[in-house]
Amino acid sequence: MHKLQNPFSKTSIAVIGDVMLDKYIFGEVERISPEAPVPITLVTGEKFVPGGAANTAANVATLGGRALLFGLTGADEAKDVLVNESKKFGINVRGLRSIEGRRTTQKIRVLGQSQQLLRIDYEELKALEVVEQNNLVQDLKAATSLNAVLVSDYAKGLISENLMKHIFEHCHKNNILVFIDPKPDHQAWYRGAFMITPNRKEAEAMVGYKLSSHENVLKAGKQLQANLGAHILITLGDKGMCLFEKNQEALVIQTEAREVYDVSGAGDTAVAALCLGYCSGMSLRESAVFANKAAGIKVGKLGTAPVRLEEIPA
Q1: Residue 2's pLDDT band (boundaries 50, 70, 90)?
Q2: pLDDT at 283 over 50
Q3: Known catalytic residue: 262?
């Protein structure tokens, strides 16, 4: 892929969803605290990266596309860090709105010798006011030359049935494709999307049974496709992916052999690559294969980390 000219440079993707700030505290652990049976971590470094929907946007940008990010933050220090870190990846952050009194979602991970010891979450699971939803929709409508809207739903309060209704109304009217990285409890809101990309656990929750066999994966994909009227890509971790394209046989894509270091953010990478690929002229099958390669690169990285185009083999 790195030998080719960037095929995604003219593709504009609006990512709308629950944005987060991911913070990593790295350290060394050599003894247990005398105060409690917990490891003492001597801090050696810290890192901030865009998380949640912001990580999806970061992947769009690092893969070579034009990423526009829409979401809500608090009016706090975490928001300032998130905006600055997002800009470093080339994300257009003009669609981020901050609300006084609301807390920016932040996930802090403490790692000792590359092993996660603790995660601390700051978040508010509070639904948006109608006026806030309307402001987001108006911001989205003001964005021009979009190829797709990618909804990154982490169930943190931003995505609602009403917001999805307005997103679909705008996108269908303007021939803009809608891709969705879903949350199972919200599946009824997604009907009308072009593509929905649940992982194994999400797909199981959406259909109500375990995907413990290949037959059940095929059954679930067809069921979701029928229920939601969309193309479906089920990501299966180390088992690869399964694409359910309308009027086509299901395509099983085996993962390429590599050591799995950290799966966090792999779904964000996959849906960003899938969306970019299809909107830039690849077929759905080609896009799914490209997404599988990108996700395979991601799981070899520690923590939330976007994948760059030049990292993906041709």
Answers
A1: very low
A2: yes
A3: no
When pLDDT is averaged across residues 279-306 and rounded to a whole number, the result is 90
Residue 178: give its domain's CATH number.
3.40.1190.20
Please tell me which residue in 18, 22, 181, 268 is annotated as part of the active site: 268
Q: What is the mean pLDDT of residues 158-168?
A: 95
pLDDT score at 190:
98
| Residue among 137, 216, 153, 146 at smallest CA distance from 188 | 153
42 in any annotated domain? no
Q: How far is the C-alpha of 35 from the C-alpha of 135, rounded, in Å?
A: 50
How many other β-carbons are positioned within 10 Å of the β-carbon of residue 177?
18
Which residue, 101, 95, 116, is CA-closest to 26? Answer: 116
Residues spanned by the domain of 179: 12-20+50-102+125-306
Length of the chain: 314
Q: Is residue 31 in some structural domain? A: no
Beta bridge partners of 21: 50, 106
Number of domains in the chain: 1
Interatomic CA distance for residues 155 and 152, integer angstroms: 9
How far apart (Å, rounded) are the C-alpha atoms in residues 112 and 204?
A: 33
pTM over 0.70: yes
**Contact criterion met (CB below 8 Å) for 40 and 29:** yes
What are the pLDDT digits (tens) for 112-160? 988 899 999 999 888 888 889 899 999 999 999 999 999 999 999 899 9
With b for 16 or more beta-carbon neighbours within 10 A and e for fewer, the 279-302 pattern comes to bbebebeebbbbbbbbbbbbbebe
Task: Kindly report the number of other CB atoms within 10 A of residue 259's CB atom.
Answer: 6
d(CA 216, CA 130): 40
CA distances from 130 to 43, 73, 169, 253 (A): 43, 16, 17, 41
In 3D space, the residue among 13, 122, 23 whose CA is nearest the CA of residue 70 turns out to be 13
Rounded to an integer, what distance in angstroms lies between the CA atom of residue 240 and that of residue 149?
25
How far apart CA 49 and CA 106 sit, in angstroms, is 10
